[in-house]
Amino acid sequence: MNRRTFLISAGFAGCAREQRPRLNVYNWSAYIAPETVPGFEREFGVRVRYATYESNEEMLAKVFSGNSGWDVVFPTHSRLEAMRSYGVLAPLRHEWLPGLGNLAPDFQRPAWDPRLELGVPYMWNATGIVYNKAVTPVPAGWADLWRPQLRGRLTMLDDPEDMLGACLKKLRLSFNSDVAQDLRRAEREAILQKPLLRAYLNAEVRDQMVAGDVLAAQLWSTTAQQAMDAAPHLAFAYPAEGFPLYCDCAAILRESRRQRLAHQFVDYLLRPRISAGIAQSMRTATANGAAQSLLPEAVRQNPALYPPREVFGRGEWARAPSPAAQRLRDRIWTEIKAA
Amino acid sequence: MRLRFWFLLPTWVSMAALFAAPFLIVIAYSCLSRGVYGGIEAPWTAENYLRLFDPLYLTILLRSVFIASLATLLCFLSAFPAALFISRARHKNFYLQLVMLPFWTSFLVRTYAWIFLLRDTGLINTALEALGIIHSPLPLLYNDGAVLLGLVYGYLPFMVLPIYATLERLDPALFEAAADLGAGPAATVFRVIAPLSRPGIAAGSILVFIPCLGAYLTPDLLGGGRTVLIGNLVQNQFTTARDWPFGSAVSILLMALVTLVVWQYLRRADEPGL
User: Within an 8 Å CB–CB cutoff, is residue A203 touching chain B?
Assistant: First the structure.
């Protein structure tokens, strides 16, 4: 280092307001309690740059560059395998994660990551049916969303995976089917249903459920819970034929230069009190068993957020389709939209 | 010469960096294979272009051209009288400000505002029901009508302003001459003013047609995802379908179409007598 570069770097160092190490956390929107990050910053004497995304694709597009600038991200479990094969994930070091034992039994050895090497389960949700209690009989399964009585007052998700998945489940097939014949049958169901639909809507349907424009909608359980908090005339059903389950996981990126700090953050999220605080303020379902027992009775018994065992057992963890099936699903989705 | 070079340099650099380079990247992507999880992979292929000849995608393309043409026509029908009025009004600047007023707010926010107006419990249906004109809400939202309304609303100023610019330059003596020669008001508008404002109409139509052809936000929000236009197809390939090469090929097709339209316009504009 010559004298000039020394002076320049010393100058920059002098200008920097903050000398504390910085952790970069990229999470879904509305997925953390207001006090979570400040609490971590205080306790560990660090700064956290926190930003949010709205879809896995948005996050992955950045992360796959291998130079995204993030340390901790929260992919859905079905995306972990792709991230691993692209080599962007750092293997989890269990010796730095003493809080792993707090996870609920279902998440200790999940099917998608039996040794918890890729991501730490954070919050989970399912796709089901939110409906207006005025609808009789009460929708209990996907098949009820094909009732002519709901014409014009019904929406499905604008998401190929969930929409086709509901059709597959109606046919009592696997949500994750890669079989062309199954997918074509699901397509016929979707086209049959299309004239009944008001629209394909994602979270926007929440307001229209609350206002009463829409009587029944395919929706994610946590989004449905937000609608139900705003309107007592709404209820949620876990469909009888089965439904998909999604678990968002805290994952540490290989590019991160603060592996230790990133692990400390993930371990901090595993603390029962922290996880319970997030679950309660954001009305989500935590994968942390120790945190669940800290929640008030009313929340633990909430059938939309924490369904009973036998209901949960009907769920099917979503899996990424094979490349060929993915291509067929995309084409079918375009055909449904163009129909 | 040197001075000219230095002054033009920023333009050249920004054109190269912000137009030429991304354009070349899109062309390159459109000739590659799809990565398993988004992105692109070897080998080079023409498959993405061959897929465009699929009747499914051609139908979507034709639909998009039809909707964009209809939106352009509706824009013209509502913009021409407005432009004529403004060009002959006393407070021109005031009215022009009104035309541009919507640009003060984000297009996304204004499109959401339409949802609140059009939905079943929205302002229009509630008002009509309160007045006893209707007894059950009209299905105003989530259909092609709503998409057209959104497009016409969004791009109307792009039609009004060019037509206004040509009308404003017309010599008022022409109107008097038309009247002296026995033309009534209608004949003056249709046989004198309209033909003379053709350059403005053509420019406005181009400015409206092109963004309408590639629109994806309006069909998505006001159409409720029930239809797919070419803009939605492109968007979908880059997001949920994660097929960047095919998305790039569709974009190239869209750009080729737009170039064709503009080229036709420029060729006609060069013709004498216009």
Answer: no
Class level of CATH domain B52-270: mainly alpha
The DSSP symbol for A115 reads: T
- Tell me if chain B has a CB within 8 Å of the CB of A206: no
**C-alpha triplet A70, A73, A78: angle, nearest 5°:** 140
**A32 within 8 A of A250, measured Cβ to Cβ:** no
Residue A333 touches chain B, beta carbons under 8 Å: yes
**Nearest beta carbon to residue A64 from set B39, B59, B237:** B39
- What does the block give as tokens for B41? 């992979």
Predicted structure pTM score = 0.86
Q: Which two tokens stand for residue A262?
A: 């990133």
The residue of chain A with its CA nearest to that of B144 is A199
Q: Which pLDDT tens digit goes with each residue over A9-62? A: 555 554 555 678 999 999 998 899 999 999 999 999 999 999 999 888 889 988
Reduce the DSSP state of residue A88 to 3 states and report it: coil
User: Hey, are the CB atoms on B225 and A337 less than 8 Å from each other?
Assistant: yes
- For domain A125-244+316-338, the CATH superfamily is Periplasmic binding protein-like II (3.40.190.10)
Among candidates A57, A161, A199 on the partner chain, residue whose Cβ is nearest the Cβ of B226: A199
ipTM of the complex: 0.85
**Model confidence over B37-77: pLDDT tens digits?**
777 888 888 889 999 999 999 999 999 999 999 999 999 99
